[in-house]
Automatic annotation (TrEMBL), chain B:
<keyword id="KW-0067">ATP-binding</keyword>
<dbReference type="InterPro" id="IPR003593">
    <property type="entry name" value="AAA+_ATPase"/>
</dbReference>
<keyword id="KW-0677">Repeat</keyword>
<keyword id="KW-0813">Transport</keyword>
<feature type="domain" description="ABC transporter">
    <location>
        <begin position="15"/>
        <end position="250"/>
    </location>
</feature>
<dbReference type="InterPro" id="IPR003439">
    <property type="entry name" value="ABC_transporter-like_ATP-bd"/>
</dbReference>
<dbReference type="InterPro" id="IPR050107">
    <property type="entry name" value="ABC_carbohydrate_import_ATPase"/>
</dbReference>
Automatic annotation (TrEMBL), chain C:
<dbReference type="InterPro" id="IPR001851">
    <property type="entry name" value="ABC_transp_permease"/>
</dbReference>
<feature type="transmembrane region" description="Helical">
    <location>
        <begin position="52"/>
        <end position="72"/>
    </location>
</feature>
<keyword id="KW-1003">Cell membrane</keyword>
<keyword id="KW-0997">Cell inner membrane</keyword>
<protein>
    <recommendedName>
        <fullName>ABC transporter permease</fullName>
    </recommendedName>
</protein>
<feature type="transmembrane region" description="Helical">
    <location>
        <begin position="104"/>
        <end position="123"/>
    </location>
</feature>
<dbReference type="GO" id="GO:0022857">
    <property type="term" value="F:transmembrane transporter activity"/>
</dbReference>
UniProtKB/TrEMBL annotation, chain D:
<keyword id="KW-0472">Membrane</keyword>
<dbReference type="InterPro" id="IPR001851">
    <property type="entry name" value="ABC_transp_permease"/>
</dbReference>
<keyword id="KW-1003">Cell membrane</keyword>
<feature type="transmembrane region" description="Helical">
    <location>
        <begin position="206"/>
        <end position="228"/>
    </location>
</feature>
<feature type="transmembrane region" description="Helical">
    <location>
        <begin position="240"/>
        <end position="259"/>
    </location>
</feature>
<feature type="transmembrane region" description="Helical">
    <location>
        <begin position="56"/>
        <end position="78"/>
    </location>
</feature>
<keyword id="KW-0812">Transmembrane</keyword>
Length: 317, 510, 324, 334
């Protein structure tokens, strides 16, 4: 098999009707050792395989392996490559190679590098909206406590990913609308609950319980770690005067915390919903319905007010 | 006793050390030592354990820098910063510790550090030279491309000797080259050394075997406590005067009357075998007597002791201690049955060098010093005091790491570990006095004799006639894994030697 | 005998060598430097911050105590700590329906067994611990992922929350760390097992020839280590209220860093629980200073590495000076 | 007494490993529903190119009886420097990566050789420090390499199955094999790995050799990082421990002994090819990643247990106890 010598087939709009049965999809997604990825893979694979699509599992959490696997996918000449971009820039060249080989690519979750933006189909989670939702949660929560001003700490996911960067973009923009609330610390928690807890403990010690009014843990499991740290340091969390904490993609632990009143709110971006929508997109694509090049999954803000509606959706991981 | 007149084959001094001194921490190992070696001379360096011989050797061979003093070779005063520099000035060395690499082949070992082997590997160009070297030390059965790990310890030692001989040195230093060799193998070393000396090389020979020293060497320099006592022509010395120089006193040999009376059977061995190494050894050990298995390297003597200690996984045979059967192949099983073992490799299979003397002495009896798994300090210190006295060590030093002791004193600690234990019935010792000076040797012999009298079965192996005659009541000679003969009571050395080197075959024929 | 009577040996024996004094000097300078840096750092000297330092040292510290046992016993390191902690954390949370104490016991048993099996292979067969535990880390993570399908485990009860208690304002894990440090230290110093462990760690072959139960001692050390990993796992899981294969985070290298920073040599035969405790606190304190002064995570990790390097060199120089 | 040369572990293990994995690879179509193509060979060699320099670096230090855990740190730093300094001119980036790697190796080697330190804790500390440094340099962010021509060049197919990157890696192995087999370096490297003290006494320049080996290890790791960054068009501040683990597996399969003193570059090459083939089989057959993980665990576990010295004793003991005692050969009885 080769990469560059089949250009004549390239222009064919791979889907072009004919239904799903017998179609092959090479799936270079997140590895199952990540809880988000695990649930996504399960929902996605079940749904498509149920309709006769043949899925080849090339998932991994290692960016280098992902490139090798993507190249392998190209050589397999499937009807479609579905990929998650662990490392945005290292996927630029493989995506271009796929384009040359005439194999369509669908990217889900995080957006691709701008240089190949037009070359792939995309089903994206709305990271900026997630950041906005987190900021709204904080502002709303603080205002409900009657605080006009307040200091906020943020512990992010791995800073090198677009997911964290885009969330911060949305978050910062929304916070800028309420200048009386100030972000005093932003630390990289590396999507790691243990590290997040450690950093939170130190930040709380640094500023004291009354030095921090709000906190943003970029994923629920990070927000939960912040809450635990705060409680261990003897700070009050939630309630009439305690620290307002928010997450921004929902996990079961977060939903429990919202119900317990310690987490003010979160937002969706649960793997099940994106998986459903991605699978749905592929269905439409193979059925020749020509879906729009980019679809954004609608993200919802979750707080105590509507937590019941999202409990089921958010409790898979 | 100042320096005696030089009586050498050539009167010109080639190598001179002047006022050489060296301290390790608080220990002054060598104090202002001076002596000279002439071209073509075989010069012995003698002294008790820890006298500083090896330290002098290390300074002469570039392994340690002197704190003070000069080393001259020819007319130059040299700064021997490393082995390479020393080699460049023509100093070849056989170290006290075996210094060949088991993972390399014989030929590769001969090439190590050899200046004549260049940076590029040029195939077989040196093969003939290496072959001749090996043949010269009696290793004609050993192949150049054979991995060294396939050779026994004595053969390895001979390879190291061959390597040093092959370097065409101006000064050849041999630090106890024959300690691990049998008498027959040692003869090869003597012959080679004589040949090299005849070619004009100066030779420094360190040994505790005083007989060989007097036979082989031209002059003898004796050291005591780091200082040179005297340099004397060998012809003017006898073993007794030499010992007197070394120790300042004459050691007591065990008197004939000290020989033990046989008691009950403690250890009963039937058909002890190790594939390809030991074939059906039968032995009955009684308390009160000291037994020896005697044989050259490779005779299976070491193997027999190691098998009894549970260190040879494929050993078979029937072994009973006080009538109870012992399962072979597991050291813990042997220990439980009351067998204590002193290996011939005290560095890697013996002592805990970086632990205090106390820990080393008590390592084998932790069980007796604990109650419910917790160490009882009272028992610990009582046992320690008793042992330290028993072994003739200084109480003051029990907290010091064993590494800081000289080889001979390390050996005393090692032997002491098996003594004065209620749970020990059999004491096995492989070369119990390897590298130990005359005084230390007598002390260790006394310890073993006492142990036997206390009701233990004592079995040791040795390649040295003197030791066999001094210590053993019963000697079993071994040759190529087979028992040759059992001797009760005093046996002429010549008989033992013949059996150890040639087996029983010729005798049967005669 | 003659040698022992040598006069030069007499007095000087107990005196400290120059190298020892020099290394002590360096240690003093470093501690003073850390203190000065701390004192000049805003908010470093406060009860809250001291609590924070202890808190962040506590979980790594308990793990590191386990690793200390392994290292003293001469089996170098375990590189499977993170994965063990993650897997045991999952077990702990999913067993919450049994109640806190049974769940805790179950976790300790599982942790001890998983680690003890590796110890048995190292102790009895002489397998290389580094490679073996790399294999174990893959195996544990693979099994955990396979069993859970990668989904996070949530607690099946609420008993775990007791582990997040803060008696007298300090997290329970700090008390546990102090108690376990004292317990492990006592075991090492006062029991026959402790002494055999030091001996086995220093020279395995010699220990075997001396008739010490090398395999059993090593296995016991690893069992103990596994139990300590499990304690960390329970606290970490309780803290995060959910567990997946990434729960252990960077614990493996954090624990190694703490043990090495405490001055326990990787070659075995030496070391103590109290030193490990101090190592964990040192690293936590320095990280804290750097964080308070606004340095990034990268710089904190860099400094952690340099501390470990410095201590390794110092300890080595000191030991060597003692050997001379 | 002389055993066959092929029966020695430094040859037997890599040849067996390579042979077996090759068979598994060729048989993949029989159990997984896939076809093999020349691209699969290309991809195997790409995996080789990714791990090869690391395996060689680790292998060389292991032969010398040391264990350089810092290779992955140098690898990460090398990749990052390549991207940050080589945006305009790839040569600058490459030079920076290799030079820094060599310098790090030099310093570590000097510490280890000069103070006679054990290498594990030193390289472990360096590893932690280098990851921190890389992360500090990049602010924790993945950095993009925008010189796409280089990216395309290093991975373009050459003779169908090769790429410049895999050819460079194979060249490195050839060079190392030539150096080690053709000069005293190889012999002395094995000597200091087999018995450090004895080699020193024999007059081997142990210190210099160690420093050179660590420098080579650092340079190779830096180069590996640079090549990877060129290929990916980016540099990640934390490559994880997976590269280290696979490189270690490759070195062990390559016949290098954990105790030191044994191994050769061509054996290493066979070992890394075996690992690359396995990785490719996992990819072609689309095994879930946890299955692959379990597979590597089993592989490493088997190697390390088979290599375990005391197990041999145990097996011998067991065999001896199950077998009746041998009758002593009659003709030798005196
Ligand atoms: N590296 C060292 N560190 C500390 N002390 C040492 C060291 N090397 C030797 N010593 C001490 O120096 C003294 C002289 O030792 P040396 O090895 O030279 O004795 P020796 O005469 O060769 O004894 P032996 O006959 O037992 O080999 C001894 O007391 C020994 O303990
Ligand atoms: N690995 C081996 N495989 C096969 N035979 C061996 C092996 N090692 C040694 N031998 C042979 O076994 C015999 C006994 O060897 P060994 O060196 O153990 O004797 P020994 O008990 O040490 O003798 P000594 O009493 O002189 O110390 C010798 O003939 C030797 O060549
Ligand atoms: Mg000596
Ligand atoms: Mg012997």
């Amino acid at each position: 098999g080769g990469s560059g010598d089949d250009d004549d087939k390239a222009s064919a709009s791979g889907g072009g009707g004919g239904g799903l049965d017998g179609k092959t999809v090479d799936f270079v997604g997140y590895g199952a050792d990540n809880p988000w990825g695990a649930h996504f893979n399960k929902v996605f694979t079940d749904k498509l395989e149920g309709q006769g699509v043949e899925i080849r599992d090339l998932t991994t959490m290692d960016p280098g392996t992902a490139v090798t696997n993507f190249n392998q996918a190209i050589s397999n000449k499937p009807d479609l490559i579905v990929a998650a971009l662990l490392d945005t820039s290292s996927m630029v060249v493989p995506i271009e190679k796929a384009k040359q080989a005439g194999i369509p690519v669908l990217v889900f979750d995080g957006r691709p590098d701008p240089s190949v933006d037009g070359d792939v189909m995309q089903v994206l989670s709305d990271s900026e909206a997630l950041g906005v939702a987190a900021a709204q949660n904080l502002v709303e929560g603080l205002q409900a406590q009657g605080k006009d001003s307040g200091d906020i700490i943020v512990i992010t996911g791995t800073k090198s990913g677009f997911a964290a960067q885009d969330r911060m973009k949305g978050f910062d923009a929304e916070m800028a609308k309420n200048p009386s609330y100030e972000v005093i610390e932003t630390e990289d928690g590396n999507w790691d609950p243990a590290l997040t807890g450690k950093i939170a403990t130190q930040l709380i010690a640094k500023h004291g319980c009354d030095g921090i009014q709000g906190a943003y843990g970029m994923a629920d499991y990070q927000a939960v770690a912040i809450i635990a740290s705060a409680e261990q340091a003897g700070c009050q969390v939630g309630g009439a005067d305690g620290m307002v904490v928010t997450g921004s993609n929902c996990f079961k632990a977060g939903i429990e915390a919202i119900k317990a009143g310690t987490l003010y709110g979160t937002a969706t971006e649960d793997p099940g919903t994106i998986a459903e929508q991605t699978a749905d997109y592929i269905e439409r694509y193979f059925n020749g319905e020509e879906p729009p090049a980019t679809e954004v999954v609608k993200e919802e803000r979750v707080t105590a007010a509507n937590v019941a509606d999202f409990e089921a959706q958010c409790s898979n991981a | 006793m100042s320096e005696a007149p030089v009586a050498t084959r050539t009167s010109e001094g080639l190598v001179r050390v002047e006022g050489l001194s060296k301290s390790f921490g608080s220990t002054q190992a060598v104090r202002a030592a001076s002596f000279g070696i002439a071209r073509g001379e075989i010069h012995a360096l003698c002294g008790h354990n820890g006298a500083g011989k090896s330290t002098v050797v290390k300074m002469l061979s570039g392994q340690e820098a002197p704190d003070d003093g000069l080393i001259r070779i020819g007319e130059e005063a040299l700064d021997l910063r490393s082995r390479q520099v020393a080699q460049r000035y023509g100093v070849a060395l056989v170290d006290q510790e075996l210094s060949v690499v088991p993972s390399l082949t014989v030929a590769e070992n001969l090439m190590l550090g050899d200046a004549r082997t260049g940076w590029l590997n040029r195939g077989r160009s040196s093969a003939a030279r290496f072959r001749a070297l090996l043949d010269g030390v009696g290793l004609d059965h050993v192949g150049l491309r054979q991995p060294l790990s396939e050779l026994g310890i004595g053969e390895r030692q001979l390879v190291e000797v061959a390597r040093a001989l092959g370097q065409d040195a101006r000064l050849l230093i041999l630090d106890e080259p024959t300690a691990t060799l049998s008498d027959v193998e040692s003869q090869y070393v003597y012959a080679s050394v004589r040949k090299v000396a005849a070619a004009g090389c100066a030779i420094l020979f360190v040994s505790h075997r005083l007989g060989e020293v007097l036979d082989l060497c031209d002059r003898v320099t004796v050291m005591r406590d780091g200082a040179v006592v005297a340099t004397t022509p060998a012809a003017e010395l006898t073993v007794d005067t030499l010992i007197h120089q070394m120790l300042g006193e004459a050691p007591q040999r065990l008197a004939e009357s000290a020989r033990g009376q046989a008691g009950d059977v403690v250890l009963d061995v039937e058909g002890l075998s190790v594939p390809a190494r030991l074939h059906g050894l039968d032995l009955e050990l009684r308390s009160g007597q000291v037994y020896a298995v005697a044989g050259q390297l490779g005779s299976g003597a070491s193997e027999a002791l190691r098998a009894l200690a549970g260190l040879v996984p494929d050993a078979t045979g029937r072994v009973r201690v006080d009538g109870r059967e012992v399962r072979l192949g597991r050291s813990t099983a042997s220990v439980r049955a009351g067998v204590a073992f002193v290996s011939n490799d005290r560095k890697s299979e013996g002592l805990f060098l970086d632990k205090p003397i106390g820990w080393n002495l008590l390592a084998t009896r932790l069980g007796a010093l604990t109650r419910g798994g917790v160490v009882v300090s009272r028992r610990w210190s009582a046992a320690l005091d008793a042992l330290v006295d028993l072994c003739g060590l200084e109480r003051r030093r029990v907290g010091h790491d064993v590494r800081t002791l000289s080889g001979g004193n390390q050996q005393k600690v090692f032997v002491g570990r098996g003594l004065a234990r209620d749970d020990v019935r059999v004491l096995l010792l492989d070369e119990p006095t390897r590298g130990v000076d005359v005084g230390g040797r007598a002390a260790i012999h006394r310890l073993l004799r006492d142990a036997a009298e206390q009701g233990l079965a004592v079995l040791f192996s040795s390649t040295e006639l003197e030791e066999l005659q001094d210590l053993a009541d019963v000697v079993v000679t071994l040759h190529q894994g087979h028992v040759v003969q059992r001797h009760d009571g005093p046996t002429p050395g010549a008989v033992l030697l013949r059996e150890m080197t040639h087996g029983a075959f010729e005798e049967v024929r005669r | 005998m003659t040698a022992l009577a040598a006069p030069a040996r007499e007095a000087a024996a107990a005196r400290r060598t120059r190298a020892e004094l020099a290394t002590d000097g360096v240690v003093v300078v470093v501690v003073v430097a850390v203190l000065l840096a701390g004192l000049s750092t805003d908010r470093f000297v406060s009860v809250a911050n001291a609590k924070a330092i202890l808190t962040s040292a506590s979980l790594v510290g308990v793990c590191a105590l386990g690793l200390t046992l392994i290292m003293i016993g001469g089996s170098a390191v375990s590189l499977a700590i993170s994965q063990t902690v993650a897997a045991v954390g999952m077990v702990f949370l999913s067993a919450q329906s049994l109640g806190l104490v049974p769940a805790l016991l179950l976790a300790v048993v599982v942790g001890a067994l998983v680690t003890g099996v590796q110890g048995a292979v190292v102790g009895h067969a002489g397998a290389n611990p580094v490679v073996l535990t790399i294999a174990a880390s893959f195996a544990i993570a693979g099994v955990a992922t396979g069993v859970t399908d990668g989904v996070s485990v949530s607690p099946s009860g609420t008993g775990y929350d007791h582990l997040n208690a803060t008696p007298a304002g300090l997290p329970l894990s700090v008390y546990v760390l102090v108690a376990l440090t004292l317990g492990v230290e006592w075991t090492l110093r006062r029991t026959g097992f402790g002494r055999s462990l030091y001996l086995v760690g220093e020279n395995r072959r010699a220990a075997r020839a001396a008739g010490l139960a090398v395999g059993r001692t090593t296995t016991l050390a690893w069992l103990g280590a596994g139990a300590l990993f499990a304690v960390t796992a329970a606290f970490t899981a309780a803290f995060n209220t959910s567990a997946n294969v990434n729960l252990g985070g960077t614990l493996t290298f954090d624990a190694i860093a703490a043990v090495l920073a405490g001055g326990t040599p990787i070659t075995g035969g030496r070391g103590s629980a109290v030193r490990t405790f101090l190592g964990a606190v040192l690293i936590a304190a320095v990280s804290d200073i750097l964080l308070l002064r606004g340095y990034s995570t990268g710089v904190q990790v860099l400094v952690k590495g340099l501390i470990v390097l410095g201590v390794v060199v110092l300890v080595h120089l000191r030991t060597r000076s003692r050997q001379a | 007494m002389r055993r066959l040369r092929l029966a020695r572990p430094e040859l037997l293990l890599p040849l067996t490993a390579f042979g077996l994995t090759l068979v598994v690879f060729l048989l993949t179509p029989t159990w997984a529903d896939v076809e093999l193509s020349s691209f699969d060979v290309y991809n195997t060699l790409q995996i080789l190119a990714r791990l090869g320099p690391l395996a060689l670096a680790l292998g060389l230090t292991m032969i010398a009886g040391e264990f350089d855990l810092s290779v992955v740190g140098t690898y990460a730093l090398g990749g990052m420097l390549t991207v940050q300094l080589g945006q305009d001119d790839w040569r600058v980036g490459l030079l920076a990566a290799v030079g820094t790697g060599a310098a790090i190796g030099l310093v570590q080697g000097a510490l280890i050789a000069g103070l006679r330190l054990p290498s594990m804790p030193v390289t472990l500390a360096t590893y932690i420090a280098l990851l921190g440094l890389t992360s500090a340099l990049s602010d924790g962010l993945t950095k993009t390499y925008s010189n796409i021509d280089v990216t395309l060049w290093v991975d373009q197919p050459v003779l169908t199955v090769f790429s410049p990157r895999s050819l460079i890696t194979l060249g490195l192995f050839a060079l190392a094999a030539l150096l080690l087999a053709g000069s005293r370096w190889g012999r002395e490297l094995r000597a200091i790995g087999g018995d450090r003290r004895a080699s020193r006494v024999a007059g081997v320049r142990v210190g210099r050799l160690l420093v050179a080996t660590f420098a080579a290890s650092g340079a190779l790791s830096g180069l590996g990082g640079a090549l990877l960054s060129f290929s990916l068009g980016s540099a990640n501040p934390d490559p994880g421990v997976q590269p280290l683990i696979l490189a270690a597996a490759a070195a062990l399969l390559g016949g290098v002994s954990l105790a030191g003193g044994r191994g050769a570059p061509l054996g290493l090459l066979a070992g890394i090819l075996a690992v690359a083939l396995l990785a490719e089989v996992a990819t072609v057959a689309a095994l879930p990643s946890y299955v692959t993980q379990l597979f590597y665990a089993a592989l490493l576990g088997v190697i390390v247990v088979v290599d375990a010295p005391d197990l041999h004793a145990g097996v011998t003991r067991l065999r001896t106890h199950l077998r009746p005692p041998p009758v002593p050969p009659a003709e030798e009885t005196p």
